[in-house]
Design goal:
The chain has four helices and no strands. The chain is mainly alpha-helical and 103 residues long.
């Protein structure tokens, strides 16, 4: 079995965590405008800009913005927060497991 490149995995998970936090921050900030188009465009543009620094951030920005496409804005905010929080927990568990830390 191949060994996991810990530095590569840490970089990948850092990029994903950064994408989650950035996307949720932009989502909450722009949700005050109560315009789905502005929120969706804002999250995707911020995710694209952030992905130039961390490649995995665009993936999380797209995943977190999907509920905004499908659901009413208020419901989409809650679902996006649930997706973001769950993703952060899972990523934390993966990193802890790779680093052999206690959960």
């Amino acid at each position: 079995m191949r060994t996991i490149n810990k530095e590569g995995l840490q970089g990948f998970t850092f990029g994903m965590m950064d994408g989650i936090i950035t996307a949720l921050g932009i989502l909450m900030g722009l949700s005050a405008l109560e315009n789905r188009s502005v929120v969706l465009i804002g999250v995707l543009v911020a995710g694209l800009a952030d992905s130039f620094a961390n490649a995995a951030t665009i993936l999380m920005s797209v995943i977190i913005s999907l509920p905004v496409l499908i659901l009413p804005l208020r419901t989409a905010l809650w679902i996006s927060w649930i997706i973001g929080t769950f993703s952060l927990v899972v990523l934390g568990i993966i990193v802890a497991d790779v680093r052999k830390m206690e959960r």
